[in-house]
């Protein structure tokens, strides 16, 4: 079934609003931002009736570490950062009923990930990968998919062997970020390598890296056809961040696309800080994505200065000419929404059984504010 589902998309950020926008424009599936197993374990599932969302809230940090909603259950894949089969299972079991499947990140080269044996560190540990994937497949209901996202290994044969390990261990689809672990996002992705990888396994293989426009995606499929190469889909990260309507053949005008994102951010209780960051990415554009020189009739440089001065969701709405209801709950659209939530007492024994979360992982903003031109997963 997976073979017949292109094109695909990846949700790279923990941003409900952005996920719902990508789905609205036609993405088949959206992957959530990687969440580390230990961050999710212990989280409380809260039905946020004010916004119709389901939030997984950490009682220790008093923040939502993952947020989704019932309408998205069949379309959202939860991505785990993990180096341990038992922690992966514990985290996945907690969240699996609210998502379509669980993906294991095996491509992130960032030091916080690799130091903890997660992300790209797993590319050197096929035995740990086998244990994680087998355990997840065994523990999760059969209708929930188990997938993984990898990077290219130093040779084609090594990548093919690694993909076979993943398939044999239960991965039902494999996304290949077409770069080597040490390559940065500014270096071109190796699309040609897909010709030598797609048939390493029977399960669907998705290509990721440098899909920034519909034209490029069409060119990729044309190239694949000419070469007799049949990957099952493409996964888009930066291209969709700059332009979530990349999935649509009839995209809206730029201004409307941006305003629509603002409305979604308000409706899903996105924090104004994250909303601001995504908006700044959209308004700046990137490789192959040129943006208009003005917004709302205001010169883009001046408008960007206005955006950067905003200090609340209400301010953002005013800047973009969108309505903002003053009736939202206290602390809506801020990082302290759950500050006074009546959390039940935590089981101290359970916490002490978990290995410590390292200091960098503690700061979700660090993970979110990745520089698309810098090091990325
Ligand atoms: C801001 C940002 C956040 C990212 N977060 C993740 C992540 O959580 N998990 C992951 O597997 N990849 C993550 N990535 C990497 C992308 O999934 C993707 O592999 C990479 O950006 C190349 O694809 P692209 O050329 O379409 O951007 C992130 C990338 C960016 C720019």
UniProtKB/TrEMBL annotation:
It comes from the Eukaryota. The lineage of its organism: Eukaryota, Sar, Alveolata, Dinophyceae, Suessiales. This is DUS-like FMN-binding domain-containing protein. GO terms for molecular function: flavin adenine dinucleotide binding; tRNA dihydrouridine synthase activity. Residues 342-377 are annotated as: Disordered. Residues 363-377 have a biased composition (Basic and acidic residues). Residues 1-32 form the signal peptide. InterPro entries: Aldolase_TIM, DUS-like_FMN-bd, tRNA-DUS-like, tRNA_hU_synthase_CS. One of its GO terms (cellular component) is cytoplasm. It comes from Cladocopium goreaui. Its cofactor is FMN. Keywords: Flavoprotein, FMN, Oxidoreductase, Signal, tRNA processing. It holds the Pfam family Dus. Residues 30-256 form the DUS-like FMN-binding domain. The keyword Flavoprotein applies.
């Amino acid at each position: 079934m997976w073979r017949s589902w292109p094109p695909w998309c990846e949700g790279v950020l923990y941003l409900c609003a952005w996920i719902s926008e990508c789905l609205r424009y036609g993405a088949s599936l959206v992957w959530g931002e990687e969440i580390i197993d230990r961050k999710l374990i212990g989280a409380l599932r809260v039905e946020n009736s004010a916004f119709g969302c389901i939030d997984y809230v950490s009682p220790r940090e008093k923040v939502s570490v993952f947020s989704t909603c019932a309408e998205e259950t069949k379309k959202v894949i939860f991505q785990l950062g993990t180096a341990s089969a038992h922690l992966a299972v514990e985290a996945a079991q907690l969240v699996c009923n609210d998502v379509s499947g669980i993906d294991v990140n095996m491509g992130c080269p960032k030091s916080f990930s690799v130091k903890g044996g997660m992300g790209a560190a797993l590319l050197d540990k096929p035995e740990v990968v086998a244990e994680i994937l087998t355990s997840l497949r065994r523990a999760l209901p059969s209708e929930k998919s188990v997938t993984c996202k990898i990077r290219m290994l130093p040779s084609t044969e090594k990548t093919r062997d690694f993909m076979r390990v993943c398939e044999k261990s239960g991965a039902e689809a494999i996304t290949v970020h077409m770069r080597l672990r040490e390559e940065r996002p500014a270096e071109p992705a190796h699309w040609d390598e897909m010709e030598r990888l797609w048939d390493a396994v029977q399960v669907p293989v998705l290509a990721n890296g440098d899909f920034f426009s519909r034209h490029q995606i069409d060119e990729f499929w044309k190239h694949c056809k000419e070469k007799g190469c049949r990957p099952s889909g493409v996964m888009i990260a930066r291209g969709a961040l700059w332009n979530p309507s990349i999935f649509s053949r009839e995209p809206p005008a730029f201004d409307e696309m941006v305003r629509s994102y603002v409305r979604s951010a308000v409706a899903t209780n996105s924090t104004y800080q994250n909303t601001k960051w995504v908006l700044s990415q959209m308004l700046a554009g990137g490789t192959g994505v040129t943006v208009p020189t003005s917004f709302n009739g205001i010169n883009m440089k001046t408008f960007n200065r206005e955006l950067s001065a905003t200090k609340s969701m209400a301010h953002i709405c005013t800047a973009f000419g969108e309505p903002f209801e003053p009736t939202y709950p206290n602390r809506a659209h801020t990082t302290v929404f759950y500050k006074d939530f009546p959390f039940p007492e935590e089981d101290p024994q359970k916490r002490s059984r978990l290995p410590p979360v390292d200091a960098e992982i503690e700061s979700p903003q660090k993970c979110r504010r990745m520089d698309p031109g810098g090091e990325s997963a």
